[in-house]
Amino acid sequence: MQIHNPWNRYSPLTFWLGLAGVPIGLAVGLLAGTQPSLLGLGLVAVAVVVYFFARFEQAVLGLLILRSSLDAFSDQGVPAAFAVGLIGLTLVYVTVRLLTGQIVHTDRFWWLLAGWVVLQGLWVVLLPLGGLGLDGSYFFTAIREWVRLFSWPMVYLLVMQLKDRLPPQTVITLLFLGLVMPLTVASIQILLPDSLLPDLLKPSGYSLSASLEVTARINGTLGHSNTFTTFLFLFLGLTYWKQNQAQQSKLWLLLLGILAFFFVSTKALFGLMMLAVFIVFLIAPRLSLLNLIAGIVLFALMIGLFGSTEFGQERLGSIAQTPLGNPDIDIWKAILLSQGDGNSFNWRLAQWTYLLEQWKHFPILGYGLGTNKLISSNGLEPHNDYIRALVEGGIVGLVTWLVFLGVQVGRL
């Protein structure tokens, strides 16, 4: 005998939506009577979620493209709100797929990344418990940093869900749209004097008394010139890859030249170092005299472009006033010079030395996530991930960071 079950007519998604509709309906009614503005914000959020589910591929790519244009609004908290919203969307999407029995794509690297980020939560928990160098008054600083880290596996998880929906080549090609706004703003920063730029487009750290270090550099829509350099370096690599894949490579070669121009215009010395390493790894698998000469010529051309301005020449000349370019200058002399010479490498040596001295007070577990600027003598980021990991997480934090990097290197 066949038993009639009315629930068979409904999908699991219908059941869960119906179940969620009860508290949502109560909340909407309550907000309509007490806080209409919050109700409007909630309706916008619902519309975003509906669009996210209905046009998933377009929504994910749109979010990835949009992110490169948001750092200009950091003072308004837009990037942080974007990260929180992205995390929420990802969790809702994955939860619905799990509840409805659909596949959620992951890989080993995602589990590694997610596990490492979850482990960083240990320092968030220990901070208010008094187990670290700083007390619980810095708890929200640690929370903000952990949320920033947590957004990494969430973005990776979202991109993984594009598997079997869009070819990787198509995704990479569409991501080049993320260059439009940063390069447009960078062009404006090059063409117009800083005094004529809107406040949102002025280089980071700009003021009427700002040094040449600030006014001669560009950062596009990214928060800092160094960040913009890293962003451009990523797309230099992707453009080179696309140029090798394409049958008509002239447009990609043109884009490669444009990116190289902006790359050297950031006047970031570490960018030249990254480029040198990239060229070495590029020619090493197919090493020949011709490739070696081409690599040397390319690097020399980039250095020539870098030094084509007064500030670029000053940046290159500053290497001679550091232990890297002058054997007569040791670390301690460089630290003394950093108090008055304005050399970025020397003041970083001084900053790293100071941070290492502070780390010795709490060597095992450090001071807590996001606290490096609070401990530093100048209130700036150390620009050294290893020093940062050691100071914020102690020996334990540094070991977890090195293991995380080591597994990635082994995987590659």
Describe the 3D structure:
There is one protein chain. The protein has a domain at 313-412. It has helices at residues 12-34, 36-54, 56-67, 78-99, 108-129, 139-160, 168-175, 180-191, 212-215, 225-245, 250-265, 269-283, 289-306, 310-317, 331-337, 344-359, 372-375, 385-411. The protein is built from 18 helices and no strands. The protein is mainly alpha-helical and 412 residues long.
- Whole-Å distance between the termini? 59 Å
Integer average pLDDT = 78
Give me the strand/helix succession.
HHHHHHHHHHHHHHHHHH
Helix proportion range: 55-70%
Strand content: under 5%
Query: Quick one: how many beta strands?
Result: 0
Rg (C-alpha, Å): 25 Å
Poorly predicted tracts of residues:
1-10, 16-22, 24-33
Shape: globular
Oligomer: single chain
Number of helices: 18
Question: Major β-sheet, in short?
Answer: none
| Structure class | mainly alpha
In brief, what are we looking at here?
The protein is mainly alpha-helical. About 65% of the residues lie in helices and about 0% in strands.
Key structural traits:
single chain, 412 residues, mainly alpha, 67% helix
Task: Give me the secondary-structure topology.
Blueprint: H1 12-34, H2 36-54, H3 56-67, H4 78-99, H5 108-129, H6 139-160, H7 168-175, H8 180-191, H9 212-215, H10 225-245, H11 250-265, H12 269-283, H13 289-306, H14 310-317, H15 331-337, H16 344-359, H17 372-375, H18 385-411
